Amino acid sequence: MDVTLHLAQDPDADALLGRSPLAALTGMLLDQQVPMEWAFRGPRTIADRLAAADLDAHDIAVQDPDAFAALLAEKPAVHRYPGSMAGRVQQLCQYLVEHYDGNAELVWKGVDDGAELLRRLQELPGFGRQKAQIFLALLGKQLGVRPRGWRAAAGAYGEPDSFRSVADITGPDSLARVRAHKQEMKAAAKAEKAEKAKKAEKAATTGKSGTAAKSTGSARSAKSTGSAKSAKSGG
Q1: In principle, which of 17, 45, 125, 142 could form an S-S bond with 91, CB 3.0–4.6 Å?
Q2: CA nearest neighbour of 35 among 10, 66, 18
Q3: In sequence order, which residues have a C-beta less than 8 Å from that of residue 92 and are 6 or more positions away?
Q4: How far is 205 from 108, CA to CA, in rounded Å?
Q5: How far is CA 206 from CA 98, 201, 210, 217, 220, in A?
Q6: Measuring CA to CA, which residue among 3, 29, 30, 35 is closest to residue 16?
Q7: Is the pLDDT of residue 1 over 90?
Q8: Which residues contact 84 (CB under 8 A, 6 or more apart)?
């Protein structure tokens, strides 16, 4: 694997991502709750702080958890949540050591079916379906890994020029388009959440009104029945 990527928008960081399968996987793992460039600069920063040219799954897997968390937390921090993400990076490396002898490339090397590759990616610690599909799209679109049916397995992220994820970032312009798409999705999700909350509040208010009306009606009925009994008794 030796390709030119522009995910971190930093030459040294992107060079590592383009030649190191583990760096690419780690960058994808870190890509949550922080800007994309920040996440994909992470592998280069980790390697530098370990005084290494590349990330080594065997080495990271056995690092002291507290020391490794402190390494990611050094300024500038590798992530907004360096402690929790340090644990996830170690879990990923431990899984790779156990299942792929520490060689991240073996996750996809020789796999000839897109659905099978998606399944393998989803089994990685920290990789849900969406993250696995995005990374599968990145493999197919920019890293030359294109097993049969990879676009279908990657879902919407596999569509050509969809500009939905890092899989479509090839420079500043495409980065801006992907970021704009993400902002639109966030705005739509926020609006949908607000609308659901509004409907729930309205339903609750309507329910209270109905209950109050029912209680008032019952009270009136009881009062009427009581009056009728008193009149009959007096007669």
Answers
A1: 125
A2: 10
A3: 25, 26, 29, 124, 125, 126
A4: 54
A5: 57, 9, 6, 16, 21
A6: 3
A7: no
A8: none
Listed ranges 183-187, 210-214, 231-235; the one with the highest mean pLDDT:
183-187
In a 10 Å sphere around its CB, with 0-12 CB exposed, 13-18 middle and 19+ buried, how is residue 37 labelled? buried
Please give the backbone phi and psi of residue 68, each rounded to the nearest 5 degrees, phi first.
Answer: -70, -40
Residue of 87, 152, 83, 84 lying closest to 115 (CA atoms)? 152
Mean pLDDT for the chain overall: 89
Q: Residue 74 carries which side chain, given as an amino acid letter?
A: E
Residue 226 has pLDDT above 60, yes or no: no
Say what the pTM is. Answer: 0.79
Give the three-class secondary structure for 75: coil
Q: DSSP assignment, residue 148?
A: B
- Output the pLDDT for position 21: 97
Tokens 């530098």 belong to 48
